[in-house]
Write a structure and sequence with these properties.
By secondary structure, this protein is of the alpha+beta class. Helix content is 27%, strand content 22%. It contains five helices and six strands, in the order αββααββαβαβ. It binds zinc ion. Zinc ion binds next to strand 4.
Length: 158
């Protein structure tokens, strides 16, 4: 089954109501170092129901690319996971980041409004990365909607 982009109702159905405290979060260890604003990050908080899926993605990214290539391609450039906030451009809908079921990578080179014409993750060397996210249940907004290439969110009914 291909992951899709859940509506807010689906997010609540599968993950419960979101809250600013993130009472549903767990901390996972990363199998390689990521960098948030150039500061090393070795752990990440995410929703407990998708913790294993995130671990599977990171493990497979590492085995597929190797750490040097992950760094070179800036796949280790972490833009955040849990963040209780509205979807950008919406006055009422929460972002999937509010549940800790979405991750942003290399945000400066894959901005919200960039399409495949300029977004770095649209290049062929990132196809394997997007395939790995999809294999483990994460939808790519870039691949599905040709925007916000930084963003991957969990989208299989659980
Ligand atoms: Zn995002």
């Amino acid at each position: 089954m291909k992951p899709k982009i859940f509506s807010q109702l689906e997010q609540e159905k599968y993950f419960g109501k979101a809250n600013p405290q993130g009472t549903y979060l767990v901390m996972i260890d990363l199998p390689y170092t990521m960098y948030y604003d150039k500061q090393p990050v070795n752990k990440m908080r995410c929703h407990k129901k998708v913790a294993q899926a995130f671990k599977n993605v990171f493990t497979e990214l590492l085995s597929t690319y190797g750490e040097a290539k992950l760094n070179e391609l800036e796949i280790t450039d972490f833009g955040g996971c849990f963040n209780y906030r509205l979807m950008r451009g919406s006055r009422s809908k929460l972002s999937a980041h509010s549940w800790g079921t979405a991750i942003d990578l290399n945000p400066n080179r894959n901005t919200l409004k960039e399409t495949s014409a300029t977004a770095r993750f649209a290049r062929p060397e990132y196809k394997a990365m997007i395939d790995i996210f999809e294999k483990h249940g994460f939808a790519s907004l870039g691949r599905l909607e040709n925007r916000d290439f930084m963003h991957f969110q969990y989208g299989i009914p659980i």
